[in-house]
Design goal:
heterodimer, A: 495 residues, alpha/beta, Fumarate Reductase Iron-sulfur Protein, Chain B, domain 2, FAD/NAD(P)-binding domain, 3 domains, five-stranded parallel beta sheet, 21 helices, 16 strands, 38% helix, globular, B: 276 residues, Elongation Factor Tu (Ef-tu), domain 3, Rossmann fold, 2 domains, seven-stranded mixed beta sheet, six-stranded antiparallel beta sheet, 9 helices, 15 strands, 31% helix, 31% strand, binds flavin-adenine dinucleotide, binds iron/sulfur cluster, binds FE2/S2 (inorganic) cluster
Chain lengths: 495, 276
Amino acid sequence: METISDILKSERQQAWRDELRKSMKAKERTSIPRVKMPEQDPHVRNKNHSEVNLGLTDEMAIKEAQRCLDCVDPTCITGCPVGINIPKFIKRIEQGEFLESAKTLKETNALPAVCGRVCPQEVQCEANCFYVQKLKKDPVAIGFLERFAADYERNSGNISVPGVDNKNGIKVAVIGSGPAGLAVAGDMIKWGYDVTVFEALHEIGGVLKYGIPEFRLPNEIVDVEIDNLKQMGVKFETNFIVGTTATVDDLRKEGFEAFFVGSGAGLPKFMNIPGENYRRIFSSNEYLTRVNLMNAANPDYDTPVFSGKNVAVIGGGNTAMDSVRTSKRLGADRSMIIYRRSIEEMPARVEEVKHAQEEGVEFMNLNSPVEYFADEKGNVNKMLVQKMELGEPDSSGRRRPVPLEGSEYEVKVDTVVVAIGVSPNPLIPASMPELEVTDWGTIKVDKDTMQSSVEGIFAGGDIVRGGATVILAMGDGRKAAKGMHEYLKSKVGKK
Amino acid sequence: MNKIVEKEQLNNNVVKLVIHAPRIARKRKAGHFVIVKINKKGERIPLTIADADAAKGTITLVIQKVGVTSHKLSLMEEGDSLADVVGPLGHATEIYKAGTVLCAGGGVGVAPLLPIARAFKKAGNRVLSVIAARNRDLIILEDEMRECSDELIIMTDDGSYGKQGLVTHGMEEILDMVKVNLAVTIGPAIMMKFASMTTKKYNVPTIASLNTIMVDGTGMCGACRVSVDGKTRFVCVDGPEFDAHKIDYDEMIMRLGAYEDMEREAYEKYLETVSK
Ligand SMILES: Cc1cc2nc3c(=O)[nH]c(=O)nc-3n(C[C@H](O)[C@H](O)[C@H](O)COP(=O)(O)OP(=O)(O)OC[C@H]3O[C@@H](n4cnc5c(N)ncnc54)[C@H](O)[C@@H]3O)c2cc1C
Ligand code: SF4
Ligand code: FES
């Protein structure tokens, strides 16, 4: 049997790749410095909502692509959760065949324009690049190049809508329209199924729409991908909560034969410290949803949002960075990150931390809130913060933050955003007692097929992993689609 | 979808809209609510389902004009459509044979109370109801409430109709006379606070249905959080009904006012545009 590595090898031996490799000496390639992403000026961009990164020019992309050595053993691929053929798509860019490059990306990744923008490349593909591993140099900018090829294709007006097999008339339901659900829908429609995506909110896209802000991932990019799926025949039903608007059993009666649950990890956690329910203390989900999904910052829209002058955001992940940078854009004078570990241990993407610093966000690391206070109306006006120091490593391998007794001090705030994580959305599990869940409320699945404890019900993304990443959710979705396809084939066979 | 098939003005400030939403009509039970968004630029607001007709595929919403969105809703006409309606949301009321059930509603809270009173009646309970408002014009759904109640007391603050006094006076009248097994109260937060203080005096288990600020209504944002028995709960997914004696009403009232200044300003601006 031909293995993936055989395929990669034979593709690498194709004449065009060979030629390209020979066209420039390795020495010459490695002496090119890593490309710098053109960005909006930090002090301009922290007052608008437009995208921070402006994208590479053709010349920049080709030059960056030349850095890639087209390794015999492309270790970068092992770092990619969906196994994109990285050297191939990069070499297509070097060749100037940008549309071909985009096609390569789409063989394994349905949303390259999204992933190029939001994946934590520094711990995935780029961490495993030969430049980092062996040369101790900056990695090839795989993420920037991915974004470049995908944007080029979108802007060219030549988006390749993948071919669709003959309709087989079998109805499948996808619950949740985040990256996991969209990935399942994309594969199942290709294989001829009749696919309906059910979404609880009034917009399609899950976290990509309500969570990740415009300045990092413009909605338009997500909408183009959704339009593609529509063109391929995927049906979308918004304002539809599976479990209450109709149950899985109801949908079975309506002819749906298999289900994918991609309902995400939407429930915000709070710290349960005194004063946390005062006014103007929000979960990051509320804050970001008001601004991103409901357009609260635009006076033409009816939803209000409170935009304070002294904003504290609690947490160190992407959600915290998105919230704190949003607060700057809503006019805060002082936007602070309060995080109980050190800056190196923050789970956010490195680029987001850097961008936040440039935009004037203050980082108060090794600090944790202990109590909130409010004025007579109940509006938060100050918080008590405790300093921490790093102790022994915990189960995650990171050093555990230990509170320093007596180190408490007050910080003046008028808005607080709590961004300390989310837990799985319980709507589906609550409506289906027979569905097995873990103690954390995530759905248990077979790790190869992604099938849950209930036959014909598959699951993936944050509802299975807890809060994870876009690419892992999509990877799950593709695996689940395969599992579902096999399941349905065998079911039809039995009939 | 979501077409308004019938509109009725219940009083100057309150309208009833019957909306085509067949799936919700089929699934809803007493106590459920929906989230409504009028148009692309609208906000998402929660509204209790006052009634439904599964055969016709309609749900009934009762809306009091208090701000921009409710005002816009009150101006919509038969044939218009709402951009988004999602539900049914929240836990349905637990209906069982309790014996004697006291249903106490204030203002527009009578609308969500009605299906609950009906359901308790249907389950074989003796239903004693008190509905209250500031004045005669603000009393709504009187006939409907009378129909499902063994006894109905009407209270108005100014005495312009029924008896003069607060909802709690009517409740005490009943509580003094009969042994009540369960009380249900829905209305403005301050009214529910006093209603539950009243039933507490008589040791009657009580549920209150809360209508906090909401955004998504699916447990995602925490805007709707309240403290019940010292714990933070989300009204949209844990409620909307809670043990009335354990709710921190003062915190709830404080949180309800979170956007009052912005809302007032927006409403005043909006009223200028409609009066032009
Ligand atoms: C602010 C923020 C920033 C982030 N930044 C990054 C980043 O930079 N890089 C990265 O890789 N990851 C990031 N993440 C994480 C990433 O977005 C998630 O891991 C990913 O979106 C999970 O995808 P999903 O498809 O499992 O679920 P979601 O995207 O959460 O989608 C689930 C959808 O299901 C819907 N739903 C739930 N229940 C039901 C139901 N019963 N019926 C119908 N619909 C239902 C929900 O409304 C939602 O739209 C971020 C997350 C947040 C919140
Ligand atoms: S490891 Fe780096 S240099 Fe090698 S193929 Fe991958 S991206 Fe190119
Ligand atoms: S309304 Fe958002 S969690 Fe309840």
